[in-house]
Structures are given as C-alpha cells and as structure tokens.
Amino acid sequence: MTAPTVLVTGATGTVGSALVPALQARGATVRAMVRDPERAVPGVENVVADLNDPESLTAALKGVDAAFLNSPSAADAAALQKRFADLVRSGGVSRLVVLSQYAADIDSPVRFLRWHAEVEAHVAGLGIDHTVLRPNLYLQSLLGFADGIAQGWFGAPVGDAAVSAVDTRDIAESAAAVLTTAGHTGRTYTLTGPRAVTHTEIAAVISAATGKPIAFQDITSEQFAAALAPFMPPWQLEGLVEDYAHYARGEAAEVHAAVADLTGTPARDVADFARDHAAAFGA
Ligand SMILES: NC(=O)c1ccc[n+]([C@@H]2O[C@H](COP(=O)([O-])OP(=O)(O)OC[C@H]3O[C@@H](n4cnc5c(N)ncnc54)[C@H](OP(=O)(O)O)[C@@H]3O)[C@@H](O)[C@H]2O)c1
Questions:
Q1: In a domain? residue 234
Q2: In which domain of life is the source organism classified (predicted)?
Q3: How far apart are CA 275 and CA 43, in angstroms?
C-alpha cells in the first residue's frame, strides 16, 4: 500500500493524537475523526463523526483506504466497534486496524478483555484485511496520577507485580507501520515496553527524572475505587479494578518484540517516558 488515506478514530485521544503525526511521517494522508469540530486536529483533514451515529461513520469512511479503530470508554464499546467494523466492510475500505488490549480473552474475568475479545472475533469473521494491536498498560496512564506524584506519592492495588507497560507513542508508531506497510493481514501484535517493571520501580524512575522523592504505595482495591469513584461511572470503575487485579496477579508481565519489529526502533523504556514527562510530574 503506497501513501494510503487513513481514517483515525479517537484522533484527539492518547494513541490517536500520536498516530496522526506518525502516519504523516510515513507519507500517509490522514483524515482525523472528531466528535467536536472545536477539537479538530490541526494540519490534517478532519471529519466530524460519532461511533453512535452510523450515518456519520459511513460518510467518514468514504474514500479512505484504511481505518484505525480505537474504542472509547463506553459501556457499549464492543457493540459500537463491531458496527464500525461492519461499516468498514460495507464501505469497501481495504484495511482495518483495531486497537485491542493485552491478554484480550472471551473468558477473562476482566470485562474490558472480554469486550475486546468479542470485537476481535467479530472482525476476524468479516473476511476483511484486518490487524489487531494488543497494547499493555499505557505508561501515559500514569499522567492521571501526576498531581499526586508531583506531591511525592501514588498508589494502586498492584502489589509488587511487574507489568510490561508500553508508551503510547510506540503504540501509535506500530499502528502507523501496520497501516502503511504490507504483511499484517490477520496478524495480532502484542505491544509492550522493553521490560516489565513494578510500580515501586516506576516510582524510582520518575523520582530520578524529576529529582524529587516519590513513593509508591500498594493500596487495596477498595481504597483505589473510593479514590476514583468521583471521576468515573461504576461500570468503568469496576472494570479498572478488574484491570488492576489482572496486573496484580502477574498476568501482564510478558515482554514482546512487536514494537521493535514493526517500527525498527526499540520500545521506549519507562525511563524515556519519565524523562519526557518530568515536567508533568512536578520536575
Ligand atoms: N489506558 C490503558 O492503559 C489501556 C491499555 C490497553 C488498551 N487500552 C484501550 O484503549 C482504549 C481507550 O483508550 P483511552 O482511555 O486512553 O482513551 P483515548 O483514546 O485517550 O480517548 C478516547 C477517544 O475516543 C473518542 N471518543 C469517545 N467517544 C466517542 C464516540 N462515541 N465516537 C467517536 N469517538 C469517541 C474521544 O474523542 P473526544 O475528544 O470527542 O472525547 C477520544 O479521542 C480502550 O479500548 C482501552 O481498552 C487502554
């Protein structure tokens, strides 16, 4: 595929915002899908559409060669993604790349992993050129704890389990590679960082990057849920607690080579992430 036109869903989000420049760097033409025109992505074509509005999606998909599907945090995320995939097929779009999650499994006790597995199975049954990306915990999700970290402390119910957390810039660059080169049809890539790290190690690395003492404290799921309850609906909070129980069981520690294989560059280490975001953590 040479210089494809790619529809990027979630273009304002964590991965999507890094995917737009990564695709441009590979010579692709980007059509950024946004819900709110006021949040249009500069420097590329924008289309206003919503995963809840199939007509807007049909219009957004018109004329593109490939689509990148990022799930929003929604209780009906699986249904929205399956319908989007159906529209990709009926719209004659040549390639679909789906952002799933590390260890997606229809039998998982983690609801998000079941939802992603449901979408993966649906997409696999459509008979279209598709690729699945399964990233592990985003290092960028630590930015959600930045205020606490800047004050010297953060907590999560993860114990001393190591997690091969991945930088979302590497997810975006891997996605850009898959969207613009051949040989990925039907493949599933698990995207991780270059090593598995405990949250105590993460605290030490951010401490080194900021020059400030930062402690990690293992907290209970109940304490975690109580702290986050004001910020998200119950289904999302329960899902997040399930995610962390999965990390705490040591189920997210495998290191995969896919980022380096796809991008030609080693996956960023937590130290790279901490250095690049030191200001957000109060350096
Ligand atoms: N966080 C992690 O550690 C992690 C790890 C592995 C996998 N994942 C997966 O990543 C996905 C979500 O990532 P995230 O929480 O970091 O979110 P995000 O990609 O940063 O943000 C969600 C994006 O979806 C857009 N969006 C929301 N509702 C939409 C709708 N109805 N129609 C179209 N676009 C919509 C948002 O646009 P607006 O600007 O309009 O709101 C935003 O651009 C989930 O599938 C999750 O399982 C996350």
A1: no
A2: Bacteria
A3: 27
Bridge partners of 67, per DSSP, are: 7, 96
List, chain by chain if needed, residues with CB within 6 Å of any ligand 1 atom: 9-16, 35-36, 39, 50-52, 70-73, 99, 101, 112, 135, 137-138, 141
Query: Of the residues 71, 163, 259, which should be mutated to test ligand 1's pocket, given the most ligand atoms within 8 Å of the CB?
Result: 71
**Residue 39 structural domain:** 5-134+168-191+256-265
pLDDT digits (tens, 9 = 90+) for 74-103: 999 999 999 999 999 999 999 999 999 999
Distance 39 CA to ligand 1 centre (A): 15
Q: What is the DSSP track for 86-141? A: HHHHHTT-SEEEEE--TT--TT-SSHHHHHHHHHHHHHHTTTSEEEEEEE-SBGGG
User: How many A from CA of 283 to the centre of ligand 1?
Assistant: 28
CA of 13 to the centre of ligand 1 (A): 6
Q: In the prediction, which pLDDT does 124 show?
A: 98
User: Do the domain assignments include residue 140?
Assistant: no
Q: What is the pLDDT of residues 228-253, one digit of tens each?
A: 999 999 999 999 999 999 999 999 99
Report how far ligand 1's centroid is from the alpha carbon of 73 (Å): 5
Residue owning the nearest CA to atom 35 of ligand 1: 72
- The tally of domains found in the chain comes to 1
